[in-house]
Amino acid sequence: MSNGGKGRNAPRGGDHGSGGRSRATGGQGSGGRGQGSGGRGQGAPGRGQESGQGTAGRAQSVPGRGQGSGGRGGAPGGPAGRGGAPRPHGGGGKRPGGRGGRPAKPVRDEARNVAYDLLRAVDERDAYANLLMPTLLRERRLSGRDAGLATELAYGTLRGLGTYDEIVAACSDRAPEDIDPPLLDAIRLGVHQLLKTRVPPHAAVGTTVDLVRLRVGVGASKYANAVLRKVSTRSLEQWLAIVAPDPAGDPVGHLAVVHSHPRWIVAALRDAVGGDFDETAALLAADNERPRVALVARPGRSSVEELTASGAEPAAYSPYGAYLPEGDPAAVLAVAESRAAVQDEASQLVALALTRVPLRGRDSRWLDMCAGPGGKAGLLDAIAIHGDLAGVPAASGGAGSAVPGGAVSAVSGGAAGPVAFAGRAHQVAAEVQYHRARLVWQTTREAAVVTADGTVPAWRPGAFDRVMLDAPCTGLGALRRRPEARWRRDPRSLPELGRLQRDLLVSAVDSVRPGGVVAYVTCSPHLAETVAVVGDILRRRDDVEALDARAYLPEVEGLGDGPYAQFWPHRHGTDAMFLALLRRR
Ligand SMILES: C[S@@+](CC[C@H](N)C(=O)[O-])C[C@H]1O[C@@H](n2cnc3c(N)ncnc32)[C@H](O)[C@@H]1O
């Protein structure tokens, strides 16, 4: 993520009319395609037949290295006074040295350096924060509270930088995009501490100034000091009242600044929740919360009881779900042994819903068409073999009452409530990327994993009874999991993704036999990726009908007006997962 990118995406701009900005003066310049292995014509390639070549490996980001970028010229003036910065951690004591005009020796604070390195790696190398952070913590030997601090500072800064850049702009004589990226990242880290943490202001400023002196340069540290001192004069709420656009004149811009999301995402989420700005605000706020770690106990292999015995709490909706309040999920034995796994509750439920649709006739061939890295395939694998051991809750939301839009008819065969699959079925798990197919293979027991392009099926038409299509998407429903993701997503990817989603859905429908069912799932609530895609196929094909997906999730309320089911972070505490259930006539 380049700084330019952030600047483009961050919700700032003269049209916001924030007014009243006084700035510190200061001078400082500054989806590849896999190797379709083809299965065997008949749709059930044997396990271990993935044909990809080369060594598969998890994509791993290289840990960041600090780059002292050298001091940049120009001592800032501005509102900050002179004098030594306070000690890190807000001890309140005097800084060592610093008398007689010589600046005190900067103190290196490892947690903040790790947070800073993460920000730089995200900016310079497009690193994924949640993949890189564990590596950085291990390399720097940070654990316990220090590791928690480094993580909170880095993730919080990445989430909040849209808001923080507006505030920096109000406190500086330069727009954020004109500030040298290493310096800007350090300033953002300081702003986050000042406005969103309980770090005492003098410690937030002092540790950031030290960080800049060590990692960027002495001249830059004076500039950072000036900006941060100005930021420290107001609370976050006070700053928002100054820098956020008027909600009456520009409600999207207002929410974008207050909740630190790009404007286009705010607009898309507003549309997805039906235009209600209060609900949009609740959703954006939920995106800024760190999600709890959700676990799935794969039926027949583990149980919610086993997970709760390891300290987890039972999930609200999923009969196989549990939440880990703290600690490393890998330390849970069932997870370490792949009998349980980390999986969002909505991901569990959409997979479960697919298995609950009653079928007439054969029900032994299942396909997961976009399976990598294998979350849903792992749960389907267990249900296919051991059955849905939890059963279906008694309450039912009116199964069979399909009210699809457009040219869609009601569910054939009359009302058919959810059923618990009794086992047993054989799953084929296809994935276009070889290294992701390997992950599917590692997490499933009996699924036949194949590296294949779902749009060019390696199986015969109508070969399957149930098809899971968890389509590639923008991932706007999982922003809370990936702190930097909102600044990386680009609305220009939507048309191409839309084409792929439609091609995959056509292929999924062709892959299922008459009477069989397809689950179309996205981890995005964007209407262009959800109802628009499904609506197109319903209009174009008279052999497809939509079921009321909510009826197969009777334990969950608030899934929308149907016939689709839409999960929400602010309502369900899950990712914003979309589910359509389509039956082939
Ligand atoms: C949303 S992810 C699936 C997540 C997975 N179902 C899970 O629960 O872990 C979408 C996957 O589709 C794969 N993919 C993209 N294009 C594909 C294609 N043409 N055929 C098959 N898989 C594809 C991507 O590589 C990615 O792994």
From TrEMBL:
S-adenosyl-L-methionine binds at residues 370-376, 453, 470. It comes from the Bacteria. Coiled coil: none annotated. InterPro entries: MeTrfase_RsmB-F_NOP2_cat, MeTrfase_RsmB-F_NOP2_dom, NusB-like_sf, NusB_RsmB_TIM44, RCMT, SAM-dependent_MTases_sf. Residues 1-109 are annotated as: Disordered. Residues 16-55, 65-101 have a biased composition (Gly residues). The active site is at residue 523. Residues 269-585 form the SAM-dependent MTase RsmB/NOP-type domain. This is Transcription antitermination factor NusB. It comes from Streptosporangium fragile.
